[in-house]
Design a protein that fits this description.
heterodimer; A: mainly alpha; 2 domains; flat; B: mainly alpha; MetI-like fold; transmembrane (chain A)
């Protein structure tokens, strides 16, 4: 006779097995069309480019060398690949500035939303969600029409006499920045709002009772309490901004490349799939570092606030 | 003064918030207004007209791309929602068991990687599979969309499951209902709003995708977003505004529906 304990054990094993079977379809699809192919990219980054795209199955570290270096075609000496460094730097810089800009705009917006009455809060949330659900390409296209030389921004500036001729915003880094801040703003507002909504305003009141100034309350009470939301929002903006493809393609006009355009180039005209693969892995490493920083930070702030 | 002191006030915050909402909607409003522009150039106003909607409607490329978008979206969202529902049932309402953390990580993996990297990875992998099998149909796009839709569909379903009361299911089991019957008659109806929300979220995510589709598609497999990207790169006509306007209306309709469903939940 099996003891009660053995029966319970067997039931538990069966339960775990059933749960694996239930999750199998999702895991297999993701393995086949997301995670698995990423491993192939890693392999490809160590191969030799084929003459018409694709690869030859021959080990070569050349792709990784040329991520940051270029080989002189005459004497084979290595030097820093200025073009690649510029693009890396531009992408990281634009992603950081976008994160800061969306934070500067999104934090007050989330605060405004969270301090509305319970009834109207849903309406504001709805208003922020609509752009979030609207096609990113359409929103980028909308920005394009606004900031063109013939667009409404230049028209207003001309009318007000601030400028005498239309200023060229489109096809500059500024255009990419404006576009990214615009399309990713809801991604910053939503998580900050989520933690702001739970904010206990009695703590704020206590701060004022103790003669804190408005700024001090903001800095010492509100900000620390909603920090998890701020960090989540920053990650949600930084990651897609770093790998942004649509915004620089549409607003950068092909001249101001970001990492994604550089990668695309290797699979198109560049015909250097290993280099494209190595660049992709490099982007992923930057993202992973950002995510790790997030996980560690989130863990710490949770401990602090119990 | 003391009586008007509001603890919730922060100087300038309301102004910034107002600016944000205006800035968020202004470009969209301009885009929609210019869809009704009679002029051929997108920079001047030539009076009200519906001709760009007509020309989009008569453009077979647009119609083809739209139908393809819907086809991929419907199939991918359905598959993703079924897989996500099963995965959610397998990963909620249980004590931690070996592999649970792995499952969370695996399901959310598509969210962690920039789209461009996934796009490139699928381009490489599927080009091999294409050579190997000779098949070059829509299956690749559907597989790719299903994979990145799963974490989105999983989110609301899991949230719904975690808030669900276990007593009804226990009661059913006490009354000798088979597990399948309990699932069909109790769990599924209770879970339904979450499943619907997941399905809609997945559909919108699939419909919106540009980057992964751009890399995975073979010739002649443009979806509406990749078709529009190609057109915008070539130079713009108000026809793109007209298409965008219709697309926008569709998104707003789906969000509204989503909001109503998730509200009923409470």
């Amino acid at each position: 006779m099996a003891s009660a304990e053995e029966v319970a054990k067997a039931a538990e094993r069966r339960d775990v097995r059933d749960r694996w079977l239930l999750s199998a379809p999702a895991l297999l699809i993701i393995l086949f069309a997301a995670t698995g192919p990423l491993l192939i990219v890693l392999v490809y980054s160590f191969l030799t480019p084929g003459s018409y795209g694709d690869v030859r199955w021959q080990f070569s570290p050349e792709a990784w060398v040329s991520v940051f270096m270029e080989r002189d075609i005459f004497d084979d000496t290595l030097s820093i690949a200025a073009a690649h460094v510029t693009i890396f730097w531009r992408s990281i810089k634009l992603a950081i500035v976008t994160t800061i800009a969306t934070l500067a705009l999104g934090f007050p917006t989330a605060y405004f939303m969270a301090t509305r009455s319970e009834k109207t809060r849903d309406l504001w949330l709805f208003l922020i969600t609509i752009p979030f659900w609207t096609n990113l390409l359409i929103r980028t296209f909308a920005v394009l029409q606004i900031i063109r030389n013939e667009g409404i921004v230049n028209a207003i500036l001309l009318k007000l006499g601030i400028v005498s001729a239309p200023i060229q915003i489109l096809y500059t880094d500024t255009a990419i920045l404006i576009g990214m801040a615009y399309v990713y703003l809801p991604l910053m507002v939503l998580p900050i709002y989520a933690s702001m909504e739970k904010l206990d305003f009695r703590l704020v009141e206590a701060g004022y009772d103790l003669y804190a100034t408005r700024f001090k309350v903001l800095r010492r009470i509100i900000f620390p309490l909603v920090k998890p939301g701020v960090i989540a929002g920053s990650i949600l903006v930084f990651i897609p901004a770093l790998g942004a493809y649509v915004t620089p393609s549409v607003l950068g006009g092909g001249k101001n490349m970001m990492l994604s355009n550089l990668i695309e180039l290797q699979f198109g005209q560049g015909r250097n799939w290993p280099l494209g693969s190595a660049l992709s892995i490099a982007v992923m490493v930057i993202v992973m570092v950002a995510l790790l920083a997030y996980v560690r930070n989130a863990g710490r702030s949770e401990v602090r606030h119990g | 003064m003391a009586s008007s002191f509001s603890i919730k006030h922060q100087p300038g915050f309301t102004a910034i918030a107002a600016t944000c909402f205006i800035v968020l909607y202004l470009p969209i409003v301009v885009l929609v207004v210019y869809a009704f522009n009679a002029a051929t150039s997108t920079s001047e106003w030539g009076g009200f007209s519906l001709k760009w909607f007509q020309s989009a409607w008569q453009n077979t490329q647009v119609i083809d791309a739209t139908l393809r978008s819907f086809q991929i979206g419907a199939i991918a969202a359905t598959l993703a929602t079924i897989a996500a529902t099963m995965a959610a049932l397998a990963t909620t309402r249980t004590a931690a068991y070996p592999g649970l953390t792995f499952k969370y990580a695996a399901i959310n993996q598509p969210l962690m990687v920039p789209e461009i990297v996934t796009g490139v990875a699928l381009l490489i992998f599927f080009s091999r599979v294409k050579i190997f099998t000779g098949y070059s149909g829509l299956g690749y796009l559907i597989a790719a969309h299903t994979a990145f839709c799963i974490p989105f569909a999983y989110l609301p379903i899991r949230a719904r499951l975690e808030n669900m009361d276990l007593t009804l299911e226990r009661a059913a089991a006490d009354l000798y209902a088979t597990p399948w019957r309990t699932f069909r008659r109790i769990t599924l109806p209770l879970l339904w709003p979450g499943i619907l929300a997941g399905l809609m979220l997945a559909f919108v995510i699939s419909l919106d995708d540009v980057v992964i589709t751009e890399f995975v598609k073979s010739g002649g497999q443009d979806t509406l977003p990749t078709y529009m990207l190609g057109q915008i790169r070539r130079g713009i006509t108000p026809e793109i505004n007209a298409i965008s306007t219709v697309f926008l209306l569709l998104s707003v309709a789906i969000v509204t529906l989503f909001f109503l469903i998730s509200r009923k939940r409470d």
